[in-house]
Write a structure and sequence with these properties.
The chain has 197 residues and is of the alpha/beta class. 31% of the residues lie in helices and 23% in strands. Bound molecules: inosine 5'-triphosphate.
């Protein structure tokens, strides 16, 4: 079966490809098609994930998988949440987003720096049917960024039970405990049950 990854984020593509390599799927990306940009204007991860996958499935005529994800910080009432990619403004960078986050959390003690990454994966099949799979990874926000692996907020995220950030981990170690991996595992189980019967 052919499936298109409905994301323009290169780092997500890298992670999704690595974690889907054991599936017998022909994985394509938006580089293989000329699809329009999708406006992410829903107010939930799930809403945006469905919107992205549905648009790409319609544009390509194939099944599409999208990932809408972000970081929710408890002390900030769940921000940056669905705004994670553009927290410091449109066309923001990971560095600017992290800088804004750390400034907003200035002087908060470590015990009060609880956060979680959320990932919602949407699968839209060629017949238009929709399935979504959501998962989280809990942890704490660092006082200062550490590490240069991964992307986004990885340098400031200490996953629960670890004293190194996602950005200090080898990619496979991050995968083993990430929100993206947990959501993908749910997708894989559904695919195995529903499509490979
Ligand atoms: P697409 O919409 O094209 O998939 P995007 O980067 O705009 O790409 P999102 O709207 O889902 O994707 O925003 C996700 C943001 O959340 C991402 O840019 C990071 O800032 C953050 N994020 C999500 N998963 C992350 C992870 O595993 N590690 C670090 N940051 C992550």
């Amino acid at each position: 079966m052919k499936i298109v990854l409905a994301t323009r984020n290169r780092k997500k593509i890298e992670e999704l490809r690595r974690m889907m390599s054991d599936l017998s799927l022909d994985i394509l990306t938006l580089d293989d098609f000329d699809c329009p940009e999708v406006m992410e204007d829903e107010d939930t991860f799930e809403g945006n994930a469905i919107k992205k996958a549905a648009a790409v499935s319609e544009c390509t005529g194939l099944a599409a998988v999208s990932d809408d994800s972000g970081l929710e910080v408890r002390a900030l009432g769940g921000l940056p949440g669905i705004y994670s990619a553009r927290y410091a403004g449109d066309n923001s960078s990971d560095e600017k987003n992290i800088k804004k986050l750390l400034a907003a959390m200035d002087k908060l003690p470590y015990e009060e720096r609880g956060a979680r990454f959320v990932c919602c994966i949407a699968l839209v099949l060629a017949d238009g049917s929709i399935k979504t799979f959501e998962a989280e990874a809990r942890g704490k926000i660092a006082i200062t960024p550490k590490g240069d692996s991964g992307f986004g907020y990885d340098p400031v995220f200490y996953p629960e039970g670890h004293d190194i950030t996602f950005a200090q981990m080898a990619p496979e170690l991050k995968d083993s405990m990430s929100h993206r991996r947990a959501a993908l595992e749910k997708l894989k189980m559904w695919l195995q049950k529903s499509l490979y019967k």
